[in-house]
Design a protein that fits this description.
The protein is an all-beta fold. 3% of the residues lie in helices and 42% in strands. The protein has two domains: 162 residues, Galactose-binding domain-like (Jelly Rolls, Sandwich), CATH 2.60.120; 335 residues, Tachylectin-2, Chain A, CATH 2.115.10.20.
Length: 553
């Protein structure tokens, strides 16, 4: 079969090995099929017309960056409706919202909060940034930052009795959100922005935001006594751009967090808890920059001390989502990511049923070399490794399966027993980890390696499922990627012969770059039942596969 040419100088012949079973399984080198492309199934690669790919929007998605022009997004979920708020792209002096139930059709709700209607503390040119929506005890709280009448940015919160408002200033016996900002930071001379709230397992609330001082823009945190009262005695500096922690902020080995000329930036915080540890995620390098990314620090407690993972000589060691930045135009990475993704930052985490997602904005111009670009909402999957460390299967610009909450299908591959022939590291094929930043240590052994000639991977399920589709994720290494698979066989004649990789869209041969998280994707128009699937690949060189997703119900 066809395969990308290899630049390996030494040909490595892998001996036939079997993973997951006691003796070699006698797989056929070819199969017959009762299925016809375009009638019984669609190989998405065959629909590519030079512009886009056709797919069932109720089952798959692509981050085309054309539906929700909303920077700094935050997603609130209630009763199957997803409310997306963010910095308004049309009028920075109000808060707009998009709502959707399927991430295909969106309804726009204008000016759910308009400070000019109240004549409060905000300036006429409020420049509202990064609102976030929460519900506590039946009251809806919208946290945001805006300019006061002195031109200094402040944090505050407004309230409503439903997600779409209209929101109004919070006024009670404790606070007057009309006359002054609800959260008047103790650093009165510095602007603040990007406020977020985290509720721990014990119901203790915390607030995090960014402070712009003379030296840098950094992340701080504070306990909340209530949704609108801060315990300022707990105010703590948590993250400084470039530094490994806030207590040793002079040494800054993570230079990739400081690619922006001028004031170093750390903003847009969000906190997620995993395995008893707290992951403070944030963005660096400025929202207009292509290197605007999401990275992280980790702590044993909500207010630190937060440490960023780092080993001497490692690059991008705390990168969670985005362009693996370098300010050297001659570098290979700089050239490779141009046209794939730009400015993927200012994020939130939210649930779609049982699936954890990351929502973020990205530059609509994927080859951004300008200061400001239009930013659109995008989303991808978040998973956790064996140690509970989060990782994102993104950013993506390829066909991806929608979560079960939307499509009705779930990925059943992790439920399967894996058997294989002429394959090493077969257990990586359904571990949920898709290698994307292929320059990080530890990722080189996360792919499943295929030997020369015929290789087979079989997923065996403990019961029969209705099969709706399959995604086989290609290698993230250009010289190990496949262009074709011999077959995908579910038995009983339900097989796809010679599925193709969408080479023209997903591979840039000039820069030797393959789109991260890109896959062979097949959707079945006429579903069938199966309790196993066999993937057969033939290659004359060493090749790899990243992951297999089987959509079943």
């Amino acid at each position: 079969m066809r395969k990308l040419f290899s630049v390996l100088l030494i040909f490595v012949l892998l001996s036939s090995v079997l993973s997951g079973c006691d003796s070699p399984t006698d797989y056929p080198a070819n199969v017959s099929s009762n299925l016809t492309d375009g009638v019984d199934y669609i190989d998405h690669s065959s629909t590519y017309d030079g512009e886009g790919i056709s797919y069932n929007e109720n089952m798959w998605y692509i981050n085309n960056l054309d539906s929700v022009p909303l920077p700094d997004p935050h997603v609130y979920v209630e009763d199957g409706v997803y409310y997306i708020v963010g910095t308004s792209d049309r009028d920075g002096n109000v808060i707009d919202c998009y709502s959707t139930e399927d991430f295909v059709t969106y309804q726009r709700h204008l000016a759910i909060y308009n400070p000019a209607s109240f004549g409060g503390w905000e300036a006429a040119k409020a420049d509202i940034y990064a609102p976030e929506l929460y519900c506590f005890d039946g009251v809806y709280y919208m946290y945001y930052s805006a300019n006061d009448k002195n031109g200094i940015r402040r944090n505050s919160v407004v309230v409503a009795d439903n997600p779409l408002g209209p929101y109004e200033p919070l006024q009670n016996d404790e606070v007057d959100g009309l006359e002054e900002p609800v959260f008047l930071d103790q650093n009165l001379n510095f602007g603040v922005l990007d406020i977020t709230v985290f509720v721990d397992d014990d119901e203790q609330m915390y607030m995090y935001y960014s402070v712009a001082c003379n030296e840098n823009q950094h992340i701080v945190g504070v306990k909340l006594k209530s949704p609108y009262k801060a315990d300022w005695s707990t105010y703590t500096k948590l993250v400084v751009p470039g530094a490994l922690n806030s207590t040793n902020s002079i040494l800054k080995p993570l230079s990739w967090e400081m690619l922006r000329e001028g004031l170093p930036i750390a903003e847009a915080p969000f906190v997620i808890k995993s395995n008893g540890k707290y992951y403070l995620t944030y963005s660096v390098n400025g929202c207009w920059d292509k290197f605007y990314n999401v990275c992280y620090a980790v702590s044993n407690s909500p207010l630190g001390n937060y440490e960023k993972p780092y080993q001497t000589g490692e690059t991008w060691s705390n990168l969670l989502l985005g362009y693996p930045g370098t300010n050297m135009p001659s570098s290979k990475v700089y050239q490779q990511w141009a046209g794939f993704a730009s400015g993927t930052g200012h994020h939130c985490f939210f649930k779609m049923g049982n699936d954890l997602m990351i929502g973020y904005h990205a530059h609509q111009n994927r080859d951004n070399n300008q200061r400001y670009e239009e930013r659109y909402f995008a989303f991808d999957y978040v998973s956790f490794d064996e140690n509970g460390v989060p990782f994102c299967n993104g950013p993506t610009y390829s066909v991806q399966p929608l979560p079960e909450e939307i499509s009705g299908y779930r990925n059943i591959a992790p439920l399967a027993k894996v058997e294989s022939k002429n394959v090493t590291n077969a257990e990586a094929i359904n571990d949920g980890y898709i290698v994307d930043c292929y320059n990080l240590k530890g990722e080189e052994n996360k792919e499943t390696v295929l030997g020369s000639d015929y290789s087979f991977i079989e997923l065996k399920f403990d019961k029969t499922y209705e099969i709706g589709g399959v995604a086989i994720y290609n290698s993230s290494y250009y010289d190990k990627a496949l262009l074709e698979i011999e077959y995908i066989d579910f038995g009983d004649g339900n097989a796809v012969l010679y599925p193709q990789f969408c080479y023209d869209k997903y591979i840039n041969e000039e820069t030797e770059f393959i789109f991260p998280n890109s896959a062979f994707t097949i959707e079945f128009l006429n579903t069938f039942e199966a309790d196993h699937v066999v993937i057969c690949v033939k290659t004359t060189d060493m090749a790899s596969l990243n992951e297999i997703v089987v959509l079943g119900r």
